[in-house]
Design brief:
- The chain is of the alpha+beta class.
- The protein is 51% helix and 17% strand.
- The chain is built from 23 helices and 18 strands.
- Strands 6, 11, 12, 13 and 14 form a five-stranded antiparallel sheet that branches.
- The N terminus is likely disordered.
Amino acid sequence: MLQTMREKSKSWVTFVVVGVIAFMMAITGLETLAPNPNNSDVAKVNGEEISRFQLSQSVDQQRRAMIQQMGERFDPSLVDDKLLQNNVLDSLIERALLLQAARSGKMDVSDVSLDQLILSIPEFQQDGQFNQDRFQMVLRSVGMTPLQFRSVLREDILMNQMQSGIAGSEFVTAAEIRQLNSLERQTRDIAWLTLEADKVRDSIQPSEEEIVAYYETHSERFMTEEQVVIQYVEMKKADLKSDIEISDQELRDEYHRYTDQLKETSRDKQQVSTILIETGDKRDLAAAEERAAEIEARLAAGESFAELAKTYSDDPITADKGGNMGMVEEGFFGIAFDDAISRLEIDEVSEPVETEFGLQILTVTAREKATLPSFDEVKAQLLSDLQAQEVNVLFLDQSRLLADISFEASDLTQPAEQMGLEIKVSEPFGRQGGTDEITSNPRVIAEAFDEEVLDLGANSELIEISPEEVLVLRVKDHRQPEQKPLEQVRDSIVQSLKAEKTRDQLQEQAEQLIVQLQEGVDSKKVATDAGLEWSGSDKAARNQPGVARQLLTTAFKMPHPAEGEQVFDRTELPGGDIVVIALSQVHAGEAAIDDVAQARMMASYIAAGNGRVLFDQYVRSLKDDAKIKIYDEDE
C-alpha cells in the first residue's frame, strides 16, 4: 500500500527531472531560431533551407555553452572558428534530417503535453508556481521568444524520442557479455626498465643562445592574457525588500485569507490501525472474507487487535507495529476507507471494508482536531511572505526597466542614476574569468567578450547571476595581449628546455634498448650495461595495484607474443620517466559471470554503446539518402 504511493511519487519526480533536462538542452545546446528571410542560406536539406542567421546564432550559442561547461579551462585561442562553424552546420543538417524523419513518421508532441512540461520547469517558477513574468525574463536573457522556445522544445522532445527509440532497440547476447568479461579479467606477464628523468634533467643546463631562440620561436606562449575591466550595475532582490512596507491591516487581511484556506484544507486526523487481507493473485474475495470472519470471531472473543494484526495482516510495514498506521488524514486512502473510520468511535472496530488494497478491518485509537494558529503565531511568517510576494513582482518589473534603459543608454550613467544604483568596477580578468562571484560567472564572461560589447562599446544584455540578482555591464578597458619580457619567463623556458632535452634523450635511450632486446641480446645484460634493473609483475590485471596506470594501459595494448618469445614497447609516465616494457605472456580471463548484477551492468554498458553506434549509423543513412547542398560564401 505504502509502496504504491512511493511509486506514484517517483513517477512525478521523474517527470519534473525530464522537464528540466529538456529545458537545459533547449537553451544550451545547438538551438535554431526562426530563419530570417533577409539572410542568405548556407545549406539546403531536402529542400529545407538553413539560413546564415541560424548558423551564426547556433555558433554563438555553442561557444557560450563551451564557456559554461569548461569554465576556467576554456581557452578561446584553441578554438578553430572555421572548424567550430563546420561542426555546428553539420549538427544543424543532422537536426533538420531527424526532424524531417520524425514528421515523416507522423511523430508529434501535443500542445497540452508541451504546456504541462513548460509549467513544470523550475526555472520558470516563483515560489513553486509557474510565473509568466519570470518565464519571459529567462527567455529574453537567452535571446528567445516564447514561440521560439516552444518550437525548440517540441523539436528537442521529438529528437530525444527518436534517439531513445532507435538506441533503445539494441540488446546484448550472453556470448557478448562473456567475451567482455573474459577481456576484462585478462592478465599479462610483464617486466619493465625505468629510465629516470630526474637524473638526466639535473645534468642539463641550456645555453643562453638556446633560451633566446626558444623565447623567439615560441613567442605566442609568452603573451600576457587578453583582459577586460568592466563597469557594471547590479540589482539584488534583497536590496528591494527593505523598501516594501506592509500595513497591519494588510497583515490581518492576509491572516483571514490564510485561515480560510486552512479551514478548507485542514481536516481532523485519526490514529488508525489496520488488519489488511490482500485480494488478487494471493487469494480471491471469498477466501479473504473467510479469513476476515475468522479474525472477527477472535476479536469478538476478546483477543487483542494488535496481536491479531501481527498474525494476520498482509501489510508488512504496519503488521509489526500491531497494525498502527499512525495519524491519517481524510482523502489519503480512498473514499471507502474514509467512510469506515468516520463512523467509528475510539477503539471501536469496523466490519471488513473492501478498498483498493483488499479487505481491511479498521479501528481508530485516537483523534486529533484540526486547530487554527492565532494571528500573533503567524504574524512574522505572513509579513515575510507578503514582502516576498511584493518584492518578486517589483524585482521583475525593475529588471525589465533596467534592461530597457540600459539598451537605449550609451553608457551606465543613465540606468544607474535613474534606478539609484551604484556603478562598480571589476578587477581585470580574461576569457577564463576572474576570482570573484561576478567575474567568474560564465554569462558575465561571455557578455564581456561578446563582439558588440567588447568591440562596439555597447551595454550588455540583462544578465541573471541568480534568481535573486541581475546586472548589466560594459567594458571599461580592453587590454590586448603583449609579449612578456624574457627575464620574466626565463625560468619557465629553462624548465621547458630541460624537459624537452630529457624526453629526447630518454626516448632515444629507450629505442636503443628495445632494438637490443629485439635482436636477442640477453635481457639481464641489456639492463646491466645500462645501469638499470628489471621490475616485473606476473599475471598483472588491468588495474594491478602498485603498477603505474600508463604502464598498464600500454602493456594491455601490446600484441600477443608468440610462444616462448617477448614483445617490447615503451611509454612515458607522468613525472617524465620512460619505461621499456617487455610482454612475455597473455592469460585469458574467466568468461563466466557469477554476479548477476555485474552481468546486467555490463549488458547495459554494451547496449548503450551499441545503441549510440546504431543511432549514428541511422543518421549517416539519412545523410546518404538526402539531397544536401552546402553553399559557398560567394554563392
